[in-house]
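re the bet — no i am not wrong, look at it urself. input seq straight from the record:
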Amino acid sequence: SDAPDLVFNSYSRKDQKWLDLLLAHLAPLEREGTIRLWVDKGKIEFGDRYNDEIATAIDTCGAAILLISPHFQNSSFIQEKALPRLLRRADAKEIKLYWLQVSDCHLAKKLAKTYHSTNDSQQALDAMSEAQVNKVLANLTQDLEKHALQVKATRHAAVHAEKERKAREAAEEK
């Protein structure tokens, strides 16, 4: 399918300004149809539908971006439901996991032991200049675009191979 890669964004609502900046950087990729962004902007209510919608987004995404902060690590929903599911998929190499250290916190130190941080310097975004933050987000956008295009090419090759296999089988039946 030519559907763009779904990119799941996980953040604390208290870090909205960082999400807004990230989305501004990712907007061209979404506009071009390279990615589809999944962000819960309060459009779904808590409860079963909320859990189902988030679980479906996590299970169908090709990449995930986590905005790590004390607020993020303080969310029981994120810690108990979303994060374990995302990390399982990342460990199984089913998704590309990007995480941005918004502010210094315990979870960032813990993740850094296993997963490469998108801010290479290990410096939190809130300790960087505006120019440095924009550079980190521009680099993430570039890497995400490359990843999404690779996923699309792999998907296209698989569809093409399947069509060829069916054509061969049809020719053999004649």
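see?? The beta strands are 5-10, 35-38, 63-68, 96-101. told u. also The first helix runs from residue 16 to 31. so pay up
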